[in-house]
């Protein structure tokens, strides 16, 4: 069991490493050569095209030493941008995402103050642990500040009971306010948005086959009949998996071609050659440039055979793939937002498994591979994935349990007695206990998200945002079982197995309740490693930095290439949100048990808020904009955390045998929480999943008045086109569908840019 | 513990009493004087106006002795009517309701045959119980046929495991077929229905207050703006609670007035007098007829003050109550079914707690008192009722446990040793063990439904059908916990407490699994009392028979009075469906445990099917028609029963220590069941809760073509009017809203009548 000293050593290590990351960041970001790594967002928005030029700055290295003096200036700069501007600059998703950190602060900061003031004195003056010393039980100084120090059956437990209620009600209050605020922000965001294709469009899936008509005709007829006043047009979906693979292969060859061309240019004496076999390790040696040029030509031809041209409008040429590759799904557009809102919310056919209509995700957000999965297959897939998730979660337990047992010095000494002399050195002890459990867990967790995302893809969700939300749900479950429960139960099971084995089984809450206080030190180290140093590493962006410079050296020829070499990254909701939830859960659980743990969490939230606010302003470029549709999930998971905390408090107080009357007092808490959840769900959730007709009507009316001559059909014609058919990659002229490029539809983007630019000047002046 | 002989005695008693009920019914129903008690449906449908006249029949007593010879002829007659005709005659609700009995038969009859053939030999040849005799354990012959007779750890348990899977898959198959069938029936029923106000109407609740407009104006403006092409008209809802009470009071006085008038006519010498005090026990003595005439006049005046007249259309007079009594809810009607379907399924305002739209229940089905409950109050009410239900369910345990302990002869002898000589007489033993537990339980259960219905009303549901469904849900939970689990655990707890007390707590499934086989005899007696004799008593209609003759003697003066004196009754879904679920649960649980219990259940289902089919043809008059919207509930509860059965099998096999490998084999079962439930829910449930636009469009188009000049507004004007304003009770001319009385809308009713009439002739010829 870690002592107070171990904690201090770990804290020192983590604070120092976090500080080192920050200093490195402060220096690296000032170098002009790294400008595209640390400020890619401004490049992508077209607000910056080269590093700030200043007389004192060098070409690659910043020589203006005054700027190094103010190396922490990015922190106030990150906080300066007001929220409405942030929403406009980075999108609602990002702006709301960092509100989760703020929410953590809002919930936990007052609770921290309150519990430190009220409960720490109550706990400290209990004398149980000092007496227990004689009973062969180990404990640390931290435990003296925790509920473990209260003698069994003491009246002091009433203080904890009352505090548990106070914490719950405070959380209710903050959650309610926040849900209301986010719902309002979402509605305002949707209302203020300019025209977008997804406002008029509905995704129709499971179009039944028709013997006489093609899919396209069938869709047109169905909607002409059933939505006669509103149907406008539709776009069928193509199965472009094969084509997408070809495009990807071609891009890779293109990169190699550029690489060898560059090599050749710099050293025209040696013409670069490669071997044609596996990974260039064997096979006949050929000229590299010729080889890739040939391959690319071959691929272009193959792609050409996969597509056919349709002459449209006389001057426009459209490209589609083989008509046989049309899948039974389509994006159906309506004349008005009202018509689309109606179609998205109603059932079309009496068979609820065909003609499924959902509001279309925005074009960037569509996950194209999943649009054509029949109903039965979908339910089977979900069943299999549920079973798979169960096994994934419960077989992952085994390695974690092993690492956990290692983290216990006494345990190692018992298992491997020959290591005793090494381990008993103070420094080694502190390192093992402070670092190892946290890092081992962390490595496991890095492997996981990709697996979970693949599982979600198999489940058949049709948009990237829903895939991320689903993966987050799985990940959260995983973290709950493996990180939280796994750490609490397994660690304790090894320590106190002999105490448990005689007691009757099944008293799960009590078991956990009893072991939670003893894991406080473990979680403190975990928070420091994962929360402090990990977040500081995030801002340094080591991996994108290295990759950018590699690409810049070997592949970049033009400005456009450099543009593409940037990897701004994005906020990954699926991996980071469940981790925030773990911290909130820990905060709620330990609020009345070991209040000294809370300041560590509060520090994490404050630090993360700062860093991520900086990142979303300067770095991240979100792949899609879902209008904060993840908030109900965030809310629900905090409620889950709250209920878990309440049950643990119940188990702990029950097991500590406070009064007989405490358990009935506490049982009302989870019921109230459930009710609060149902109340909030009814009150706010529909803002995130439904589409009020009144709002749609207002926007329609406004639009009719301001733009009576709008040709909506042209606007929507090619909005939902598979990304493979987009851009110059295909070497075929395709219709450009991006809103801003469509001359028919002037948007507000230009006016927005100027407003951002004015901010840009002020906020970047500090650099 | 009941022996085989006890069971036989109980069976004899119950079969005899059931037979006695049937004979009594066969005789009573042939008496012309009882015709309105046993065939009220035909009178209500206007297909019969007086008892069948025949030369041989007397005025009050049937003298045609040939008819007594064929006294069981009603049974084939009840089965003769084909299902489509039954739907037309009695409504879809009733027709689908008796399909629940059929479903029970379909599930359990093949299972019965199979388990009797396969498992009884397997169980019989196990020798455990004969050995156990020496270990001071009591058992009956029934137990020899059950799983208790298999020795611990035997390979024979694999037979039970396989049978458990076979039963589950057979149940899946039948449930799927049945869900599909009922969904089809519902869709066909809705499609074939003639025009009804609820097809065009949406119930709007939580209309927000507006400072400038009345509720009615506000509603009109809102829907004119947001559904401009579809909005037709609306009717506001009045708070008529006070008026309804006055009407009720007046009706009661009217009855007394008629009673005293009749008395006076028969005996003109004594003018009847009453005392004016409490219950006529004291106070000054006045002339009864004058007193009631005065009171009625007073009430009429009071009612008059509560309402105001509005002159409409010149010749029509409408009555409404005080405008201040308008509640913020309304029935909004649309020009097309499509428009109504759209409005019912979409969200209107961005605040999801106002402008709530739901498909309107049919006018008879509306529960008027609950239309104006604000959102917050509604959630509070639901919370309180959930807590209330919890206490109701768990405090009801106590009396049941007491009665259960009485049902055990050995228990009584221990508690009250002086009763020993009496109890040990064979007959008394059999009566106590065969009858008492069943009847005591039954009495408890009769008290309950009214309480549950009141609780559902407080929860704020807006239609009678949803109230019934909700009450059924509560009642089902109650039966599960108190009748099923209560009987299994409590009974056993008293018998085997000493065996349990040492084992670790929490192994709930195992505990139940072990005690279930021992309760088989109890459930057999319960099935006989509740299922056999109880159902036979249903057909005799003792209470309506007595009340009808009382009313007929004292109150009836005209044919119309006699019409009103009839009490046809109705199928009470809320009380009887959960009981069916109990039988299905018992069948599924005991299928692999004690297969000899199953024939009793199968007999119950066959007998009930017969009797209820007779009743819905000849007697019951449903209060509303919901189009079998209760089927998803029925399906879900059978799934719940199946999962409980599977868990019990798992616990039993786990506790019997079959192989270690059986429990993992069985754990897949509940998961598969859950998946099956989700699959069916997605596949069929929407047919019961949503309204496909395609269907609406088809009906609209058809109607436009066949009746181009239909004045829908007039048709819908007064469809949703509070029942207080209806009929002649108010002595005020009101607009008649019943579809059949509206001259503008010719319905198919007349043509339907003739088809029923033709059936009537054939089926009644047997009488």
TrEMBL record, chains A, B:
Residues 745-767 are annotated as: Disordered. Keywords: Calcium, Ion channel, Ion transport, Membrane, Transmembrane, Transmembrane helix, Transport. It comes from the Eukaryota. Residues 199-370 form the CSC1/OSCA1-like cytosolic domain. One of its GO terms (cellular component) is plasma membrane. The chain crosses the membrane at residues 12-30, 100-124, 157-176, 383-407, 427-448, 475-494, 580-613. Residues 7-178 form the CSC1/OSCA1-like N-terminal transmembrane domain. Residues 752-761 have a biased composition (Polar residues). Pfam families: PHM7_cyt, RSN1_7TM, RSN1_TM. It is a multi-pass membrane protein. It is found in: Membrane. GO terms for molecular function: calcium-activated cation channel activity. InterPro entries: Csc1-like (IPR045122), CSC1/OSCA1-like_7TM (IPR003864), CSC1/OSCA1-like_cyt (IPR027815), CSC1/OSCA1-like_N (IPR032880). Residues 381-653 form the CSC1/OSCA1-like 7TM region domain. Belongs to the CSC1 (TC 1.A.17) family. This is Csc1-like protein. The lineage of its organism: Eukaryota, Viridiplantae, Streptophyta, Embryophyta, Tracheophyta.
């Amino acid at each position: 069991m870690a002592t107070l000293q171990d904690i201090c050593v770990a804290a020192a290590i983590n604070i120092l490493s976090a500080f080192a990351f920050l200093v490195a960041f402060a220096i690296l970001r000032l170098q002009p050569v790294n400008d595209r790594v640390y400020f890619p967002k401004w490049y992508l928005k077209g607000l910056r095209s080269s590093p700030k030029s200043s007389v004192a700055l060098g070409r690659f290295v910043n020589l203006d030493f005054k700027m190094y003096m103010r190396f922490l200036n990015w922190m106030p700069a990150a906080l300066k941008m007001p929220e409405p501007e942030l929403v406009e600059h980075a999108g609602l998703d990002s702006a709301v995402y960092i509100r989760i950190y703020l929410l953590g602060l809002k919930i936990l900061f007052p609770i921290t103050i309150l519990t430190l003031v009220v409960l720490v004195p109550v706990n400290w003056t209990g004398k149980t642990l000092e007496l227990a010393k004689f009973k062969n039980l180990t404990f640390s100084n931290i435990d003296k500040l925790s509920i473990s120090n209260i003698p069994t059956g003491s009246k002091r437990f009433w203080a904890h009971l009352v505090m548990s209620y106070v914490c719950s009600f405070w959380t209710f209050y903050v959650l309610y306010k926040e849900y209301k605020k986010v719902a309002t922000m979402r509605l305002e965001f949707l209302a203020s948005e300019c025209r977008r294709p997804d406002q008029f469009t509905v995704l129709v899936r499971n179009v039944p086959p028709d013997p006489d008509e093609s899919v396209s005709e069938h869709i047109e007829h169905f909607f002409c009949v059933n939505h006669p006043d509103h149907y406008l047009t539709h776009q069928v979906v193509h199965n472009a998996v094969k084509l997408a693979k070809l495009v990807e292969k071609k891009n890779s060859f293109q990169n190699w071609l550029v690489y060898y061309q560059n090599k050749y240019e710099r050293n025209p004496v040696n013409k670069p050659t490669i071997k044609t076999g596996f990974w260039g390790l064997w096979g006949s040696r050929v000229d590299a440039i010729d080889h890739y040029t040939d391959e690319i030509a071959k691929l272009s031809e193959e792609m050409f055979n996969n597509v056919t041209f349709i002459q449209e409008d006389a001057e426009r040429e459209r490209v589609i793939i083989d008509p046989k590759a049309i899948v039974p799904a389509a994006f159906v557009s309506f004349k008005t937002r009202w018509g689309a809102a109606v179609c998205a919310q109603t059932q079309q056919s009496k068979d609820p498994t065909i003609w499924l209509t959902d509001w279309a995700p925005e074009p960037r957000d569509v996950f194209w591979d999943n649009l054509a999965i029949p109903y039965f297959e979908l339910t089977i897939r979900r069943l299999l994935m549920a079973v798979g998730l169960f096994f994934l979660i419960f077989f992952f337990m085994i390695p974690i349990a092993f690492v956990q047992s290692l983290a216990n010095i006494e345990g190692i000494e018992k298992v491997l007695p020959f290591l005793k002399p090494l381990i008993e050195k103070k420094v080694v002890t502190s390192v093992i206990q402070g670092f190892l459990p946290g890092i081992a867990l962390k490595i496991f967790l890095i492997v996981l998200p990709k697996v979970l995302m693949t599982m979600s893809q198999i489940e058949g969700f049709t948009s990237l945002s829903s895939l991320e939300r689903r993966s987050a749900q799985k990940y959260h479950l995983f973290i709950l079982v493996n990180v939280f429960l796994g750490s609490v139960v397994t660690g304790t099971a090894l320590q106190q197995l002999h105490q448990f084995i005689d007691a009757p089984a099944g008293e799960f809450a009590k078991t956990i309740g009893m072991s939670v206080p003893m894991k406080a030190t473990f979680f403190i180290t975990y928070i420091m490693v994962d929360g402090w140093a990990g977040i500081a590493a995030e801002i340094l962006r080591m991996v994108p930095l290295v990759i950018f410079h590699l690409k810049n050296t070997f592949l970049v020829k033009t400005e456009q290439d450099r543009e593409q070499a940037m990897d701004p990254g994005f906020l990954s909701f699926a991996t980071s949100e469940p981790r925030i939830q773990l911290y909130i859960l820990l905060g709620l659980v330990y609020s009345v048990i070991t209040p000294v743990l809370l300041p560590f969490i509060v520090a994490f939230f404050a630090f993360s808020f700062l860093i991520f606010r900086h990142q979303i302003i300067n770095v991240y470029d979100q792949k899609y904009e879902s209008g904060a549709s993840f908030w109900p999930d965030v809310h629900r998971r905090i409620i889950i955390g709250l209920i878990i905390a309440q049950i643990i408090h119940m188990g702990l107080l029950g097991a500590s045998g406070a009064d007989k009357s405490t358990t009935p007092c506490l049982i009302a808490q989870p019921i109230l929480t459930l009710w609060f959840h149902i109340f909030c769900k009814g009150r706010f959730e529909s803002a995130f999943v439904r589409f009020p007709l009144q709002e749609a009507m207002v926007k329609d009316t406004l639009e009719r008045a301001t733009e009576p001559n709008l040709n909506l059909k042209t606007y929507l014609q090619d909005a939902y086109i598979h990304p493979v058919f987009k851009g110059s990659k295909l070497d075929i002229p395709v219709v450009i569908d991006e809103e801003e490029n469509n001359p028919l539809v002037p948007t507000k983007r230009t006016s927005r840019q100027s407003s951002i630019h004015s901010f840009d000047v002020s906020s970047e002046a500090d650099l």
